[in-house]
Structure formats: C-alpha cells, structure tokens
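HUMAN: Mind making up another protein with tokenized structure?

ASSISTANT:
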Amino acid sequence: MIASQSKSTRLYGQLRRALQCGRFVPGQRLEPAALADEFDASLTPVRAALHRLHGECLVNDKGRDGFYMPLPTEAALRGHYECMELLLLNACDKGASPNGRRHAVPEPPEGTAKATWQLFDTIARRTPLRDLQHIVQLANDRLAPIRMAKQAIVRDAHAELAELASAWERADIARLKSALRAYHARRRQLVPAIVELLNDAHDALH
C-alpha cells in the first residue's frame, strides 16, 4: 500500500510539472496507457494521479470518455484571470516582499510563460499565509498551459514580465500592484482571441 501511494505521489508530481510546462494543450485527451508508457509506470498510479489533479480542477474527468485538459470558455478564462489578479494583489497586501534575489527574465520568445509562473509563485511564497500560497499555486497551475499556448498573440509579454519583475525586485509594491492590474486587464481584453486560439488548436488535434 505504501509503495503504491509513493508511486502515485511521484506520478502526481511529474504530471503536475508537465502541466506547468505546457506538455499538454488545453482540450487534449490524457490517455492513461500512453502516460503510463511515457512515465514508466503502471496504470493504477497514473489513474490515481489524474483523479488527484481532477480534484484540484487541473484536469477534467468526463467519466467513460476519459480525462481531458480543461478547455475554458470565455467566461471561465476571464474568471481565472480575475481570480489570479485578486490573489496576487492580496499577497501584496499581506506582506509579500522579495528576498533580494534577482528574478530572471528570459529573452523572448523562450521561457516567458514559465518565468511568469515562477514570479507569481514567488510572490505568493513570500507571504506568511500558507493557505494563500496553496491557492495561488493552484490558480497559477491552471493558467500555465494557457500561457504556453497563447504566447504567439502576446507580442510584448517580455516587456510586461520585465516590468513586473523590476517592481518586485525593488520591493516597490505600489508599482507592482499597478503592473499586476495592467497585466490582468490586458489578459481579460485578449480573452476572445485566446479562446479562439485554444479552440483552433484543439480542433487541429482531431
């Protein structure tokens, strides 16, 4: 039993990191057998990991039809952005402060989505509220595949990230909050284009 739980936990961590890195695209079906081969595991821990991810709203369980990556509607995606913004602003208000380390901003087009995830995760982790850290991580992971998929239509994402990182490194919380509001306001404006892009990519899989 302990060994089975250990395998499931390991698979859960591997799959979650794969989600963060954009290994699977929104709307993609997740085949347990294929995942078992890819991660050198049996079906039981793979299914257990997928059920756990479903419990965190990172994967959809459609019963007999299987597991899928979430493919958000415009309303759902707009809600995700609003939630992420409120959580990060709350983190700023609850004492989030940098630890003096420089936050790397990779040159475009590589790595901007991953670096955004890392910055938002860092902001949350620099608060004393563990529950807030956990909630931000879930919201951040939910948006990670979408950030990876939409990079082509956000041409100045590097400049946006550089502004956020600069404000954070300088502990200029007022400037950071303003940049976070601007970042998420722009994402909400892009929601129709992002959803269209995601749906086109999903259709191309079939």
Summary: The chain is about 65% helix and 5% strand. The domain at 2-68 is CATH 1.10.10.10 (Arc Repressor Mutant, subunit A). The first strand starts at residue 29 and ends at 30. The mean pLDDT is 89.
